[in-house]
Every structure is written in structure tokens, then in C-alpha cells.
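We both want to read C-alpha cells more fluently, so let's practise on a single case. Once you have written the record down, we can walk along the chain together.
***
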Amino acid sequence: MRDIVFTRRSGWIPNVIREDGQLKLMLGAGADANHEPRTFTFSIGEAHFAVIQEDLARHLLLWSAVLPLCDAAGTRGRLDENAAVALLDPILLSSPSDLDALFQRIPWDRGRLIAHGADIDLLESGEVCAAMRAATETSDGKRAQEYHANRRRAERGTVLGPLDASILSYTGQYLHGSTVPRRKPDAVDPALLPEVMRVIATAEQACAGMRIGRDPRRGKRATDKRDWDRMATAVDTAVRRAHPELVDDAVRTVSFLLCTEAADRSRSTPMEDDEKAAGDRDRFGAGARKTALSFTDDKGVEKKWLAGNPRTATAEFWEFVGDRSAADNEVFTIEDEERGEGIQLHFYADSIARVTTVHEGEGGGSDPEYRVEYSLVDGMSGYRNLVSTFVRGGCAALEQHGSWMSDNAEFERARRQRDAR
């Protein structure tokens, strides 16, 4: 039989219960293997109960000291009840000086106390009893998050100025640097917002006209890492030049914001529009040769494109790549059977092969003769250019794009030299 005999307004602060006639402290902490909250209990005495009822500060300090024991229990272990009981007298019944000394020797959850209003400077100086004079039953989780964020920055030697902090708040990355940045002007002190917007304007001017294209090699929604790095470098350089007082965290969050927005625009753009943005405006039926093409991957899956298709061949091909590309599926082919030519893209090696038919197979079972030539490819933009060129003009049009090598050994040497660089 379990009855709650004392609880505070905040449901997370440990409750006092009576179980089978025994007073116990009950608290929730952590989660089990199924991600359900874990509950721990351990016995307390009447004297301990009296202090818990009357002294919020000591109640919170006990909670802070027991939480590391709960963490040590993990997802399925038992609470070390002897260690928990051993904390009762020193925390609830000892003098303030002894209590301060205890917290110099034991692990405790600093963030829990800060969330409940503890004075941070006093906590840092070891005066935990004095720090808890400002304690409240209500919790402010954001205050603890800000403390931990600033502490992590301090460990890296980073100290934020008012503008740095405002820029991080504007992008929503003040608390968590891994959070996807968004524009949040309401999170900034109105007096500092104009300065923040000047920094953002500098960044926008630096990357005006730049874009981050998609990279179907890594999936339908993936974007080109080279484009991202190029834009980030342009923004970083401009912002550091115009605002040298900003710390690295502030500069990086601005470039992260602009790159994220550019990547989002690319992901929401239909493949045909993405081609136009990349400069591929030629469509079949408008001065380009009409034909049928087949696309295949390394798993033998095939997709056909016919001249009457309302979508461009390049759009259909890159969509096929986005659907099919994987770590074990990195070779894709475009073939024009009518003209006896094709290209094979080797994403794993940043290379391409163009294949042309020299002699058709004749009667008597003789095989056709092919000429195979290889070339290195410079990232996703290089692949886009080569694919669109082949679609418009075939293998002959590729002559001016890259150095083509028919000797496989020569090509492998060139590839190794490039990779070594």
C-alpha cells in the first residue's frame, strides 16, 4: 500500500510517501530500456521528513545529490539505497558549513539547482547554502540550459559579447549549437536588433546569387556539400572582415543560417526548376536531338525516357539516381541504344566513362566492338554538366569536357594522383 503524504507544487520535486508503514522519498529520474520513466524510492526518518516539509532549499539539495545515484542505476539497475540514505543526515540535519563542505566532495546535479533559482555565482564559489536562499518551487529549465551552454563555451575559451549572444539568439542557437537555425527577431533585445540585422545583411550580400544544388547521389533531399562549403566560406569571410569583433560561434551561426535557407529552397524546388537554376535550359524538341534513353543502376534496375515525355531527360535521370543511389549502388548508366552510345557514372570514384559503338555485331554471333574512354569528374556540378551535355549532344559533345583516357591503367594513375592531392 503506497500513500503520498507530502508533495510540492512542482510535480518533479521528490515526494514523500508512506509504503507499508515506512516513510520513503520517491523520485523519478532517467528512463528504462523501453524509454519509460524510472521511479526510485528509499527510506527516510521522521526528522528527515520534518526538514523536507519546512526547508525547500534542503529538499532541493537532497534531490540534486541523489540524482547522480539514479543516473548510476542506468536503465535497469537498482538504486544504491545505502548511499542515498547516507546522504540524509549530512544534507538535511547538518550545519550550513558542513553542508557546503559535503558538496565539495560528492557529485551533484548543478543544473537542477540552477533551474530552481539558485544563485550561480555562489554555487560556483562553493557556497551552496547561501546560493539556495533564492530557490523557488517552480523550475525554469531554460535558465539551466543557458548555464550549461555558457559553461560549454567557457570550456572552449569562448566568451560572448552582447552582439554575439544576440546573433545566437536570433538564429535560435544560443542554447544548442546543433539546432537547425531559424530567424527569430523576437528573441533579440530590440536595442540590439538593428546591429544583428546589419550582420545578417553583410552575410546576405556575400552570398547573393549563390545557390546550393541538390546531390541525388546521396538521396532525393540531399544537397551538394561543395556548394554548401563554398557559400559558408563566402559568408564567413565577409562577416569576419566587416565585423572582426564577433567570436567564431556568432560567425558560424550566421553562415549556418544562410546555408540552411539556401538548402531548404533547393529541396523544395522541382527537379526541372533546379536544372534551370544550374543553367540547363535545353529541352528535347527545342533544337536538341529527339531520341529514347534508358537509365540503369548497378542493381540492374532500368528506367526508360522517351522524347515525348513532358519532363527533361536530365530531370528524369537525376530523380532515378535520387531514388536508387545507395552505398552499394553507385554506378549509373545512360544509354542511347539508337545511336549506340552511352555514359557510365562512377559515383564512388568521382569518374565517368563514355562508351561508343565502333562496329555493330554482325551475323554469325560476333559481338559489337566498343570504345571506352574515362575521365575524372569534379563533384556534383561536374556530373550535372556532363550528363546534360551528353543528353543534348551525345558522346561527341563531351570531347571538350575533360581529359578522356582510353588506357585504363593511365586513368587509374590519374585518379590516384588526384585522390592523393
